[in-house]
Protein: DUF3592 domain-containing protein
Amino acid sequence: MGKKRNKRPSDQYRLPPKVVAAQRSAARVAAFRPRPVVPQRRVVLALAGLFLVCAGLASVLWFPAHSLRDDLRSGGTTVAARVVGVDDKPKFVEVRLVQGPDEGTRVRLSEYAGMLPDVRTGDSLLVTYDPEEPSRGLPRGWVTDPPANLPAYGTAAIALLCLALATAVALRRRWILRTWPSEPAAAADAVSPEQPRTKGKGLSKS
Structure:
């Protein structure tokens, strides 16, 4: 059987050369370059929260509008209508249907991503509406060729910007904490490798 290796006492352990070199490099960086301000964790959380809020708002502006458009394309009824009321407070456009089975009915057009057509009282236009629920209606032109959903696009862009900023701040925070020691004493300890420790002083021979 082979000889048993003598285990090195734990009190004489030396760090590997690579670890010592890394410690020295980190200590030099800390000594010659002042430590930048560490971004607060709450900044990362705030940006992440803004991303979630903007993403939710973009979804609200996008999905209901496209769902209404698709429903009217598949089962809507198109008739002529005349604008009988327009107001900004609250914002609405009211029309009176002048054709079809619901002739004479007054309905308020649905908003498309918070937008309403730019019309005036007395204007005529084609309206596509849901026969089972006439209040769900849009101008015919918006059903066939809907306008650009600028509110949803803008909110989505803000959400992506918040996500990018949150990622950048989190990565910078991690880099600073890994590059600069948190305490000055840590830099001083990292300059010199750990020396072996002895349990006690030897007795001198007479």
